[in-house]
């Protein structure tokens, strides 16, 4: 197709980037406005003559926002570590070893990734409630496995398949056992793939809402998405706080995306296209 | 997400078969290792995904309400809460005997008849030796003012005994009411009703929830809302996403920046972006609502979140904003695998750009499009966070999706039986949708190459 990019193309690109980013830009502008400029006449002016950090201070003093961030970080971090570890074993076996029932296992993993969360919530909630795990980190880490495990197995299988088989053969010739081959040959080569998977799993766990909403209802165990969604003022919606909180969660994300965009894209599209 | 899979991925040549025993051993150990490596994932998937779905279906057959003590657990048999029973039964007998002593003629006769009947039921319950043992245990604990644990307190009883108790208590209530002028009428009635609460009936109701839901207008409304949202948003996302993918499928300056831009709306938590859009759509101070009003898209800025159509439009618009870039990314990856030589050949033959698009791009992109559509459709059909935060299903349930309805039944009305039935309905819908897609995708999906 047309492989040259003309000036018109860059205009189109600029408009596209602006439209996609506009909501975030507006949140950034609004977050540094004094609270009275969020309403009335000045609500639609894209700048303020009196920038202030009041909204940011309010987010951390009026809500346990730091606690929300910490909760999200702990839950997503542990979920990522343990699912990627377990998934890497499974993906290795499926991609590299010979055994019966692979199609069935992959089919199962695919179907489970299609399960609607709402269909699993009532038994999981009742079980966690009965064993006293609601309002705890473990209460979220366990159900998050439903989402993250199939996801990581799928992505990792693609990455493991890309590693040349010759290396494995060579290791075998030298008398390495299968486990040695895995730890010393395959795993080091799979590190980029595992890292990519970890990023995607972390994002999925960080963004999860339904389980977090229903299982951890106590203020000190809420995660960031639930915390922000439940921001409430005494009389009005605290828009100032919401804009500041949105900016706070978006900035690390922007940095992460800028750093790892190549990896994220390769993880997202792996296997969705024929190669 | 990866959806292709080949049943025999190893391209390596099978080494010549030397039928020695060590070779065989090696194969067997490889198999054993493979199963060992796969086992943890399989066990987790069975426990945390498959079991809950089956359990949801099981729950949906019961009248399960977490806020109602007699219906808070699924039970197929009659139970008796001995603590409640023994906290009421002896006192009820006392009250009745007391009244019978004071009453005259037919009233005394009626009361004595009731006492005899109650005692007979009590004896019937104690007939079973296991029940009797527990009965004594609870009785002793209550006399010594000790706490009674749930396991000791709950006992399985015969259906006939439970029904007899229930019947006797109903008769008692009616007759005590009929006997005007009892001094302790209120006490007797109160004790009788708390005695009745000690009987826990099985709450199995079969397919009742499904019958109710399938004839419920609100359920069909929710299905309609979900389908409309899914079809419209996924269609728009596909068209715009494809257009963007085709346009940016070339080398240009600033690729990385564009890619990052694309990823940010996808990566931000849906709940947070929904809250953000709620601010932008706000009727008084929302800038997007203001712009829409200025360009004449809506008559009034407040229409967006307060009218039925406006709210549905807002949700679709936000979803399109959030996931079109992601769709474009998936399709772009598909486009990049199409060899440029096809297009070169076509332009030499004088085919127009549109002709090239319809005869080369679309057919070669078919499986990428179907895969992207499958995952987007399923995601859209399961939509929860976006609607929950942005509109809460309102106004007047006009944006209530099936997941939202199931959530409300379960966590707002604590009706887990009915909610589970709804979630099973969601599950069946999702299964049907994926089966249709897999049929279209055919072999591409599971066995490929």
TrEMBL record, chain A:
Transmembrane segments: 7-29, 68-92, 104-128, 140-160, 181-206, 242-260
All copies of domain ABC transmembrane type-1, residue ranges: 69-260
Record key words, sorted: Cell membrane, Membrane, Transmembrane, Transmembrane helix, Transport
InterPro entries on file: BP-dep_ABC_trans_perm, MetI-like, MetI-like_sf
UniProt keyword Cell membrane present: yes
Bilayer disposition of the protein: Multi-pass membrane protein
Main location per the UniProt record: membrane
Subcellular location(s) per record: Cell membrane
Keyword rRNA processing (UniProt): no
Source species, domain of life: Bacteria
Recorded family membership: Belongs to the binding-protein-dependent transport system permease family.
PANTHER family the record matches: INNER MEMBRANE ABC TRANSPORTER PERMEASE PROTEIN YCJP (PTHR32243:SF18), MALTOSE TRANSPORT SYSTEM PERMEASE-RELATED (PTHR32243)
Protein name, per record: Carbohydrate ABC transporter permease
Organism field: Fictibacillus fluitans
């Amino acid at each position: 197709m047309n492989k040259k990019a003309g000036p018109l193309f860059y205009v189109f690109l600029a408009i596209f980037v602006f439209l996609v980013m506009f909501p975030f830009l507006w949140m950034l502008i609004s977050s540094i406005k004094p609270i009275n400029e969020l309403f009335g006449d000045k609500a639609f002016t894209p700048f303020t003559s009196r920038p202030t950090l009041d909204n940011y201070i309010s987010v951390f003093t009026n809500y346990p926002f730091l606690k929300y961030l910490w909760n999200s970080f702990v839950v997503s971090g542990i979920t990522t570590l343990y699912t990627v570890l377990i998934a890497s074993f499974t993906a290795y076996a499926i991609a590299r070893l010979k055994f019966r029932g692979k199609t069935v296992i992959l089919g199962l993993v695919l179907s489970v990734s299609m399960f609607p969360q709402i269909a699993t919530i009532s038994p999981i909630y009742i079980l966690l409630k009965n064993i006293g795990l609601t309002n705890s980190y473990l209460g979220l880490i366990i159900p998050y496995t439903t989402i993250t495990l199939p996801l990581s197995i799928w992505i990792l299988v693609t990455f493991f398949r890309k590693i040349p088989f010759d290396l494995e053969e060579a290791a075998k010739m030298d008398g390495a056992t299968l486990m040695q081959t895995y730890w010393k040959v395959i795993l080091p080569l799979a590190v980029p793939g595992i890292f990519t998977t970890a990023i995607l799993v972390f994002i999925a766990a960080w963004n999860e809402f339904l389980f977090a909403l229903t299982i951890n209802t106590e203020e000190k165990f809420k995660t960031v998405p639930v915390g922000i969604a439940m921001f409430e003022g005494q009389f009005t919606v605290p828009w100032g706080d919401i804009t500041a909180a949105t900016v706070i969660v978006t900035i690390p994300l922007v940095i992460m995306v800028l750093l790892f965009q190549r990896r994220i894209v390769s993880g997202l599209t792996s296997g969705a296209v024929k190669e | 997400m990866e959806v292709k899979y080949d049943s025999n991925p190893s391209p390596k040549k099978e080494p010549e078969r030397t039928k020695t025993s060590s070779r065989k051993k090696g194969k067997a150990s490889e198999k054993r290792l493979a199963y060992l490596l796969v086992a943890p994932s399989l066990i987790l998937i069975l426990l945390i995904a498959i079991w809950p779905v089956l359990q949801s279906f099981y729950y949906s057959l019961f009248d399960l309400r977490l806020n109602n003590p007699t219906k808070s657990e699924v039970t197929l048999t009659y139970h008796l809460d001995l603590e409640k029973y023994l906290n009421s039964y002896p006192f009820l007998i006392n009250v009745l005997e007391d009244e019978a002593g004071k009453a005259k003629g037919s009233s005394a006769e009626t009361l004595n008849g009731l006492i005899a009947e109650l005692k007979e039921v009590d004896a019937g319950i104690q007939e079973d030796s296991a029940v009797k043992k527990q009965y004594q245990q609870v009785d002793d604990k209550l006399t010594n003012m000790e706490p009674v644990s749930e396991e000791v307190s709950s006992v399985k009883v015969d259906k006939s005994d439970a029904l007899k108790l229930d019947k006797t208590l109903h008769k008692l209530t009616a007759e005590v009411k009929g006997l005007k002028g009892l001094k302790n009428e209120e006490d007797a009635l109160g004790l009788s009703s708390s005695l009745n609460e000690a009987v826990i009936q099985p709450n199995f109701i079969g397919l009742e929830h499904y019958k109710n839901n399938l004839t419920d207008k609100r359920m069909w409304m929710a299905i309609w809302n979900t389908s409309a949202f899914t079809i419209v948003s996924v269609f728009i996302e596909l068209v715009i996403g494809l257009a963007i993918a085709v346009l940016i499928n070339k080398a240009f300056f600033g690729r990385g920046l564009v890619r990052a831009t694309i990823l940010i709306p996808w990566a931000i938590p849906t709940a947070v972006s929904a809250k953000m859009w709620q601010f932008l759509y706000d009727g008084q101070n929302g800038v997007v609502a203001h712009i829409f009003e200025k360009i004449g898209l809506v008559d009034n800025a407040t229409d967006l979140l307060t009218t039925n159509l406006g709210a549905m439009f807002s949700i679709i618009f936000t979803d399109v904003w959030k996931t079109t870039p992601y769709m474009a990314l998936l399709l772009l990856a598909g486009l990049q695998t199409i060899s440029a030589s096809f297009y070169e050949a076509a332009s030499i033959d004088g085919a127009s750009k549109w002709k090239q698009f319809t005869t080369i791009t679309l057919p070669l992109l078919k499986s990428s499009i179907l895969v992207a559509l499958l995952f987007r459709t399923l995601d859209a059909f399961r939509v929860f966070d976006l609607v929950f935060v942005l509109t809460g299903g309102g106004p007047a349930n006009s944006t209530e999706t099936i997941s939202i309805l199931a959530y409300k039944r379960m966590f707002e009305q604590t009706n887990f039986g009915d909610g589970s039935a709804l979630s099973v309905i969601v599950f069946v819908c999702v299964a049907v949708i994926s089966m249709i897609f897999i049929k279209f995708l055919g072999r591409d999906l599971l066995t490929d190459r």
